[in-house]
Amino acid sequence: MNRDFIAKYWYAYIYEQLENQTNDVEFLLSILQKHTDGSSQKILEVACGGGRICIPLAQAGHTVTGFDADEHMLLRCYRRMKGMSNITCYTANALTSDWGTGFDVVVLGGNFLINIETGETGMDYAQAQQVVIHKAAFALKNGGHLFLDFDLHYDPARIFNRSGESSYFNGTDDIGTYGRTVSYGSVYDPVTRICTGTRHWEIKANNGESFIAFSEQWHKHIPSQAQVYGWLSEAGLTIERSYKNYTDEPIHEPLDESMHRATIWARKD
Ligand SMILES: C[S@@+](CC[C@H](N)C(=O)[O-])C[C@H]1O[C@@H](n2cnc3c(N)ncnc32)[C@H](O)[C@@H]1O
């Protein structure tokens, strides 16, 4: 039994089923409608996963390119894009690959900024976040726009200092694998802004065999508003609009207590 395949296949399926609690896709489509000239845009979605965002963009008539490092996520995307001629997807690592150039819009959605896997690149996490923003700017044509959608917390310690067991995804996939993700809490360091935690997935395959997958200690850098705005500015991106928690209200500087999700529409000068 290929445990790695079974676990990753399960996760890609469950992610697609359960990661639909926000209206981020509708929000992006409405921003495109309001703030471009209404013509079909040439769009790059970085870390497109199973196609939750890039498929609706293609269905709306845009010419879309997507890539992701996870082949299991991409398999779902390939299935959904069958028969569509205006979308291309491929496997690549965002930190080490060439993203191409000349795009009207680059999408860094689905909280990718806080979920970058640095893996074998060994890159410092904050540096990886900065690199991703710089690469987005490079891939845009002059006058093109970055759509950046990520968690921006007023008080990260309140969110990330957690103890005790919790599970954010559980369920059974279409080949009968049951699984649940298990986290054992996390700790946020306000000086380095690094959050560290442990997690694994408990998997029961359709032949009844149970095993633990992807047991790991993870870490991520939780950027401040000033860091993100600084990276955008250094990369030659000017914030034209910002949206707080998927509303028309702009993001305040400094942040206020009710802030949790930031959406930024920034122009390459
Ligand atoms: C939270 S999911 C978002 C997927 C999709 N954008 C969505 O919103 O449904 C994060 C995705 O980032 C991908 N990813 C993480 N690090 C990556 C990297 N260094 N290069 C390419 N893809 C990466 C993962 O494989 C995963 O599909």
Gist of the model:
With 269 residues, the chain is an alpha/beta fold.
Morphology call: globular
The biggest beta sheet, please? 7 strands, mixed
Write down the domain tally. 2
Q: Order of SSEs, N→C? A: HHEHEHEEHEHEEEEHEE
Low-confidence stretches: none
Q: Indicate the structural class.
A: alpha/beta
Looking across the biggest beta sheet, what order are the strands in?
3-2-1-4-5-11-10
Helix content: 25-40%
Bound molecules: S-adenosylmethionine
**Mean pLDDT rating:** 95
Q: Can you name the CATH architecture of the largest domain?
A: 3-Layer(aba) Sandwich
C-alpha-based Rg, rounded = 19 Å
Distance between the termini: 52 Å
CATH superfamily of the largest domain: Vaccinia Virus protein VP39
CATH class of the largest domain: Alpha Beta
Question: How many strand units?
Answer: 11
- What's the total helix number? 7
Strand content: 25-35%
Please give the structural blueprint:
Elements (H helix, E strand, L loop, with lengths): L2 H16 L5 H12 L6 E5 L7 H6 L3 E6 L2 H10 L6 E5 L11 E6 L16 H15 E12 L4 H5 L9 E3 L5 E12 L4 E11 L5 E12 L3 H10 L2 E8 L16 E8 L1
Parallel strand pairs: 1-2, 1-4, 2-3, 4-5
Antiparallel strand pairs: 5-11, 6-7, 7-8, 8-9, 10-11
The chain binds S-adenosylmethionine.
What does this structure look like?
By secondary structure, this protein is of the alpha/beta class. The protein folds into two domains: 3-154 and 223-268, 3-Layer(aba) Sandwich (Rossmann fold); 156-220, N-terminal domain of TfIIb, CATH 2.20.25. It has helices spanning 3-18, 24-35, 54-59, 71-80, 125-139, 156-160, 225-234; strands spanning 42-46, 63-68, 87-91, 103-108, 140-151, 170-172, 178-189, 194-204, 210-221, 237-244, 261-268. The protein has a seven-stranded mixed beta sheet with strand order 3-2-1-4-5-11-10, sandwiched between helices. Strands 6-7-8-9 form a four-stranded antiparallel beta sheet. It is globular, with a radius of gyration of 19 Å. The mean pLDDT is 95.
